[in-house]
């Protein structure tokens, strides 16, 4: 399943590059050696942080966090907490399951017509 999420994320990043949408990935997931995990945790890696961040403030939002999922995958509890926290700080947060989902979210975000449904 993770490979499908990877493919979706790559498609989103490529779309953003092509359309000059300012985005970056937050490499938070994946399995690592214990020593690497400890090092990353000391550097500030936090469980639950979204996969992508669009650093373009728009209307009432300071930016857009994107969590990429595949098919029926759901958010972890840490991801739900992260979503709640960033929304309280004035950011938008959305789950996407495909490039088409992202394009719809981006269009809603930039036209200030974003829904609260994920």
The CATH level-2 architecture is identified as 3-Layer(aba) Sandwich
Sequence of strands across the biggest β-sheet: 1-2-3-4
Residue-averaged pLDDT: 89
Structural class: alpha+beta
- Total helical elements: 4
What is the alpha-carbon Rg in Å? 14 Å
Largest sheet: 4 strands, mixed
Rough outline: globular
Question: Helicity range of the residues?
Answer: 40-55%
Gap between N and C termini: 20 Å
Portion of residues in beta strands equals: 5-15%
Q: How many structural domains can be distinguished in the coordinates? A: 1
How many beta-strand runs? Answer: 4
What low-confidence regions span 5 or more consecutive residues with pLDDT below 50?
none
CATH class: Alpha Beta
What is the element string, with H for helices and E for strands?
A: HEHEEHEH
CATH fold category name:
Trna Endonuclease, Chain: A, domain 1
Provide the fold topology.
Elements (H helix, E strand, L loop, with lengths): L1 H17 L4 E3 L8 H9 L9 E3 L9 E5 L8 H12 L3 E5 L2 H12 L8
Parallel strand pairs: 3-4
Antiparallel strand pairs: 1-2, 2-3
């Amino acid at each position: 399943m993770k490979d499908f999420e990877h493919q979706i994320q790559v498609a989103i990043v490529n779309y953003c590059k092509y359309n000059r949408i300012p985005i970056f990935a937050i490499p938070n997931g994946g399995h690592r050696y214990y020593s690497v995990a400890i090092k990353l945790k000391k550097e500030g890696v936090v469980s639950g942080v979204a996969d992508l961040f669009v650093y373009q403030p728009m209307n009432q939002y300071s930016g857009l966090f994107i969590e990429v999922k595949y098919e029926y995958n759901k958010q972890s509890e840490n991801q739900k907490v992260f979503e709640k926290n960033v929304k309280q700080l004035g950011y938008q947060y959305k789950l996407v399951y495909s490039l088409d989902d992202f394009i719809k979210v981006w269009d809603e975000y930039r036209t200030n017509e974003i829904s609260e449904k994920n």
